[in-house]
## 1
Amino acid sequence: MASTEAETSQDPALPPKVEALHRELERKILDLEALAGRASRLQNVTAALTRAVSIRDIANVILEHGQVLFQAPAAAMFLADEDATSLELVARTGAPAGEDPRVPPLPLDEGSPLESLLRETTVQSFTRATAMALAPDVAGLGCDDPAFGWLVLLPLRGTRRLLGALVFGFPVQPVLDEVRRDFFLTLGAHCSLALERAQLFEAERRAKETLGRQRERLQILAHAGETLASSLDSRAALAELARLVVPTIADWCAIDELADDGQIRRLATVHRDPERVALAERLNRDYPPQLEEEHGVSRVLRTGELEFVPAIPDAFLVAITRDDRHLERMRSLGLSSFAILPIVGRSGVLGALSIVTEGDRRLSEDDVRFTVELARRAALALDNARLYASESAARAQLHGLFMRAPAAIAIVRGPERRYELANVPYRAILGEDDVVGRRLLEVAPERGGRPLVDLIRAVYDNHALRTVNELQIAPDEAAPAQARYFRAVAQPIRRPGGAFEGAALFAFEITDQVRARTHAEHLLEQLARSEARMRALVEATAAIVWTAQPGGALVDPSPSWLAFTGQTASEYLDGGYMNAIHPDDRAATLQTWRQCIADQSAYSAEYRLRRADGTYAHTLARARPVRDVVGRVVEYIGCNIDVTELRMAEARAREHADLLGTINELGKLIAAELDTQTVVQAVTDAATELTGAQFGAFFYNVVDEQGARYLLHTISGVPREHFAQFPLPRATAVFTPTFAGEGILRLDDITQDPRYGKNPPYHGMPEGHLPVRSYLAVPVVSRSGEVLGGIFLGHARPGVFTARAEALASGLATQAAIAMDNARLYGDAQRLIKALEATNRELDQFAYVTSHDLKAPLRGIASLASWIEEDLGPGLTADVRRKLELLQGRVRRMEGLIHGILEYSRAARSSGRAETIDVGKLVYEIVEMFAPRPPARIDVLGVFPTLRAERVALQQVFMNLVGNALKHAQRADVHVVIEAIDTEDHWEFRVRDNGPGIAPAFHERVWGIFQTLEARDKVENTGIGLAIVRKIIESHHGRAWVESSEGHGAVFAFTWPKHEDRTH
Amino acid sequence: MPTHELDILLVDDDEVDVMTVQRAFATARITNTVHVASNGLEALAKLRDGSIAPRRLVLLDLNMPRMNGIEFLREVRADPDLHATSVVVLTTSNEERDKVDAYQFNVAGYLLKPVTFGNFVDLMVALDKYWTLVEMP
């Protein structure tokens, strides 16, 4: 701070005048010094002002320096608004500490004292009282301390207008000499300059800010357009809008949609602070907007009108909330302003966009306008998206229809003639899949699509519609049968102006129609041909053709009838034709004919017609009425066909069938007979009876059990005694062909045969033999070609045996051979079975006796060994004792083997006592009997059946298998599982163990008698158990087998038939 | 008990079996006199020559040479002096036929020779017990 300017120092040593001058001089010097000081300070102020950027900086500089410059205890700076209509306090000093009252702007009404004061570009001083009168508010500004009696007002003028004013306060009237005034003015000028510059800066900054904001908003708009256009889902796009608005425009943004069901659905809520989103969403959920509400989203959605509240008074919240809690929560949000804008599309209001600010921030008109624009664009984009979606769906639908159409469709467009569309049938015709986008002639339709392509070309050439009714397309020219037919239309496609642009082809297949038509044509042709053929046939086959009047009279003599019968025309007329018909057939024929005339129906009859030579022919007569257009019978046309041959052939066939039937019947009877004697007798009887013989004999060879052959015979027709006296037939000339199997001998009269009677004395026949003239002999030959014997048939009359009799006898002989073969085979089999059974019995008996006899000495050996041990007692050496033990061991094994043989020989012997057995119970009993000590265990799985079987046999099988499994497991934790499985026609039982298993090489061997896989001494095992099991199972028609591999346990399985009655 | 009064005639061709019976008697401390015959003929001779006390029991094997057990029984039952003799069959034969035949000749019992000696002793003890209880004429 500079020294006080107003103080003076006095030197009492100087005279008054000099002293006065001196004092004057000193004062001047002091003034000059003060002036220089001020000037330098002013310079400092100027420098400081140059550095100041903002108005606040300028104010600080002025107030600080101004005080010092002018020794003013108080200062204030006012700024005018742009139109210089009011003054506003910017800064002040010298006010009582802690006080900063809000000062309302001072109005600067034109012509008011303050305004006129400021218009002056000068410095003026006033008393406080004057100032109060001039502008009471100015006085109130910081100059309200009564200690500051004087004010200095310094207007601040810029190049064009009033910028503001500086006010300094002084306790006494300040000196405003020229120099001071200049100082004030200089300060004011510098201040004005600085202010103008600062205002320019400010304006520039604001302009930049505005520009930045606008750029930001433009970006939002651009982004919005992009988002909305690219989004497939209009709702998602709407939601996206909210994110664009926050925080640039508002603190909150929410999007609501008016859903199809009339409900208001919140699509998105976005807040500057993501954590507060949940709060708003909860509020929206708890108090969802109701469509009928008179404010907010509901009203906007319903009316499509904007709602804008630039400042939210508390009363508003009170009005819109529903209860106290709602109000409380709304208040807690601290909302300051909001706007709700409708999103209006072509079809109406799509939704509402709400923007809300908080705290000091408020929405401006500008913000709302911008957001309205945003919403408008959003709506537009959404509309477009929806439109596009529906249009593309329609296009896709149309395209799909084209592609799936049952007709071939193709569109070729442009001067390059490129395919724009080619549906599946079209591509199939072309035989080319890759068609669209290629040029018309580039897709070579070598496989028959050419006509379609030509059609399109024709449209291109003539720019006119072309249709083809029956376009033939042959995939292979070599096979015209595969040709397909199409009805094709090709038409030009024109631009809206009418210019030709391309061609569209539509071809649907009519192959079936064309084929049907050609087929019908073909049929008609065939019909005509077959009619002609029919006519020819009738003429060729019908022996006779005749006509009759509707009333039945035959008035036109038929030339063919006359030729056939030898009748004359006059004999034919007046019913005379009837005389040519066999008398026995006339009545029936006439009746049939009359009936047919009465009914006007077709006529059909069969009768014998006399030939010209007097023999009768079987004829089939048929006639049909011929009618005129109105259906009246005009005449009858008839014909007779000679069916004599046919009828005879039928008769022969019938006879043959009868014969075969008889033989077969007999065959069936004798085939069932297994006794040769019975067979032979039956054949002899049948042959004698069927051939009409007086008597018959059957001589046949038999082989007895010793292999000796001898001849036996049966007799039919005469008592057996008749032949008993005669010797057996010898190899005479008559008999040889039969016994040698050379063939059948049938003689009408044997006495006339050269072979007969070569043997004297009775012409080869024993004395007293029945007289024989007709003779039939048939050899009986077995399948193997061996002659089994011969059937001999005789009759006293000659010529009795017909060809039919011969055929019959021959057939019988064949049947007899088969039956005899069968009987012999059966006999052989029976003998073998009996022999086998006897052998088996003997074997079993042998085994039994042997084993029993073997037992006795064994017991002796055992006893003796133990007595030796007893008797010698302590005198026995360890070595001898060991040997005695070995001896006992062998005895036990021997005993086991013998026991085994006994068991085995008994195994399959049926006790014959089948009973109903609950196999499950039986198995459980066996498990209980073994009672394995844990950890060994036996499990039973599956459903066990109840069977009819011999208990002991089944028990023995299970016991052997389970016992084996336990014995051979070689582990303490042996686990045996017994299972039953129901298969189609039998039960399968399985005994599974976790023992060492059996290598496949031994799978068969284990079933053999006395076969063991372990050393005899190691395991107490005779090797008889499995042999017994198999014997039992096989004797019950079951099967037993092993499934195992070494190291993986073994399964012993067997089957048991479901029906025990089938087993024995 | 006057067990010693009952003489035993053992008819068996198998020497070891004879020894078995004798040892079993010894083991079971059965003190009855045991006479031995090795077939039916020999047994008949012994029964007839008076060397055996009248209170006697025949232990009879069936399978023997020269005269087997069944033939011996037939002879005994046909003999007016011997026909009341008590005979118990002691054999290895488990044949049904043998049992039926033996009982046709009124045997007092049909015993199968046990396989082990221990069982043999048990059987002899039981036989002894039974016969000490039985009243005989």
## 2
Amino acid sequence: MGKEKKDLKAKCTDFELDLTDYVMGDATFLTKKKQEALFKHLIACKECRRQFWSWKRTWAVMVGKKQSERPEFRQKMDALLERLKSSQAKTTTRDARGEIITAAGKIYNLVKVKGRMSVPAIRKTTGFVGYPFYEAVGCLVTDKKVLLNKDNKAAYDSLEPRV
Amino acid sequence: MLYSRMPDDQKSDESLVDAYRKGDSTAFDVLLKRYEVALRNFILSFSWLVSPDTVDDIIQEIFITIFNGIKEGGDFTVKGGGAFKAWLYSIARHRCLNAVEQQPREKPIGKHYLESMPAKLEKIRYYDEPDEAAELEELKEGLNGILAKLSDEEKQLLILKEEGKTYPQIHKIPPFDKYSVVHLRRMVCDARNFVKEEMDKWEKKRKI
């Protein structure tokens, strides 16, 4: 072993306590000068670096376990899940609105071209069964885009565009 | 066992993402619970200067990013699997580096200021440990058994250190008031050395 390597090895044990304290985040004994010396040694010594990273990982797992057991962390994560779920629900609502608007557009264009049409004929032509047909018709009537004719006492019997 | 009947916690990440996209809202809960602690360990291995509350915030931000990525149909599936985890940790690494940059360079702890690691040392870390996340996950398996072998006093001492207590603070707590602050420091270092030696043995056994 060369003199330089021997010196480095001798120094390793000198840094044992400082290395432990630094990773654990206690500066009671760690002056600025001591920390600078520790960094300098770590940059030069691969074996101490290996120990440093290893202890850093071990300590992270130990502290992480402790912190994760805090009730407030569980509460935060549960609240986050609720928030994400409600944001997902909002997206679904937005998607549904898009579907209804698209269906309404198709129905309106159809009756605009063909004129008054019976509901079964519209459904047959557009292919809409149930949702989103009635929702779309509801929008068109509310927006006064079409007239709803109650022929033969049946609701939604026929639709015709409003002029 | 039919894959669809497999309990959620045994399913792969990728199949959970797929299930979530198909409308199974509980699949994301499983992913979150699977990684919430691992992410905290990962963040803490980057920096101890961040408070537990800040770590909570970072974890939440990472999950929001993941959630939005899944919702927008981000394609992270690659051959060989494990792609979700790689994606998760790459987001976490990026977020951690930002947090490290934003944190103060020093923090008063105990008698002195604790300094951040110099950039040069941070850089070397990536050459020394290219896949730190994987090593962290493996470490969890061995650590519990090893910590159980410590004496009651050592265990108690490490718990107080985990809570962020400094040596002078611990010195005021019985039964540690009978020891000097310098002796407490030596006790912690010895406990650390014991854990290190046991971990080395465990890793050797695992590799055989």
